[in-house]
Amino acid sequence: MQVVKKKNVNKIKNLLKTSINSENIKLKNEEKKRGILIVIIIMAVLDMCAITCLFLTYGPISYFRDLLITTAMTTMNHKYLAYTFYTEEIIDNVLSKNYVKEVNENTNVNDIQIENFSEKIEYNSVYEKELLTRDENDLYKVIPLEGSNYKGYLVAIYDPSRISLVKSKYYGSWGELLEGIANDNEARVAVNASGFDDLTGRGIGAVATGIFINNGILVSGNQNTKGKIIGFNKNHILVLMEATAKEAIEADIVDAVDFGPFLIVNGKPSEIKGNGGWGISARTAIAQRKDGIVLFLVIDGRQPGYSMGVDMRELVKILVRYGAYNAANLDGGASSSLNIEGKLISKPCAVDPKGERPIPNAWIVK
């Protein structure tokens, strides 16, 4: 009797083991199937991404190709992105269709009449009202900007005599963050100015690109080589001119950098072909209205989900809205930054924890 019971118990145990093993096999098979399904889905997604990238990069819609090439080719260290996907012939062809055709004039300084404060009753647009509505003692006004794919700031400086150009205290060997330049000079407003020669490949901002005039003295650049002068004369008028440093100083230019393109000259906007050849990125621009009010414009960029930046066409549109009469593009990308009362208010895109990068000089308001 005990033998029979033992056999029955063993039989039940074996059945349970068989059942458990069967369940385990089923679970393992289901896990394998799920694993295979996940791999198939991942591969399908990767294939779709690859196909999409190939379509955007080489497909019939030129917008994405043009955007990639023009954006990459105007960066300091990322031109390889264009050459990775395209031949030099294709790159040259794209650049030939996307460019800024500047107005072939220098600034007519007599057009600018610096006005004293007067409260206006009627305004030509909501933008003019936004810019001119202020208290008599206001030195500047910060206007937040937001578009479909960008965020930034426009600063109106009501007294252009308070604007000057200052350099990094390490100029020639190292740049300085805008925050440092602003605090060193007790600036109430500061924006980046010159581009810089990247001599070490590390973006240290040691020396300004091209001509750099400070307090009527040539700091760097060749005095007899023509450049795109963006500077203020002794009467606090923003002057845009194709000239040598020698010619600029003889024209009473006190502070100036060498950059571009010129966006508006004597009230005439530049003609933008395609996206302007500069792609979409962070931007800094400087402008002056006919009434003498100076505009600092900083647009954040290269930050998906927050702000990608603008192209030259959009940059000109913003400046025209606010009445810019003369305007020029300054160094953009990771250099674009805006400091107000000693604090960074823009969101630059450099690798520094604060997003800033060392720069050689800055426009400030004191």
Counting helices, strands and paired strands, the structural category is alpha+beta
Segments where pLDDT lies below 50 for 5+ residues? none
Instruction: Give the overall shape, derived from the CA principal axes.
Output: elongated
Tally of helical runs: 8
Major sheet characteristics: 7 strands, antiparallel
Strand content: 15-25%
Order of helices and strands: HHHHEHEEEHEEEEEHEEEEEEHEEEE
* Fraction of residues in helix: 25-40%
For the record, give the distance between the C-alpha atoms at the N and C termini, rounded to a whole number.
107 Å
Number of domains: 2
The number of strands is 19
Give the strand line-up of the largest sheet. Answer: 2-3-15-14-16-11-12
Q: Give average pLDDT, whole number.
A: 88
| Cα gyration radius (Å) | 30 Å
Question: Concise description?
Answer:
This protein is 31% helix and 24% strand. It has 366 residues and is of the alpha+beta class.
Could you characterize the architecture of this molecule?
The structure is a single chain. The chain is of the alpha+beta class and 366 residues long. It has two domains: 61-97, no CATH class; 100-365, no CATH class. 31% of the residues lie in helices and 24% in strands. The chain contains eight helices and 19 strands. Strands 2-3-15-14-16-11-12 form a seven-stranded antiparallel sheet, with helices on one face. Strands 4-19-5-17-18 form a five-stranded antiparallel sheet, covered by helices on one side. The chain has a five-stranded antiparallel sheet with strand order 7-6-10-8-9. The relative contact order is 0.16. The mean pLDDT is 88.
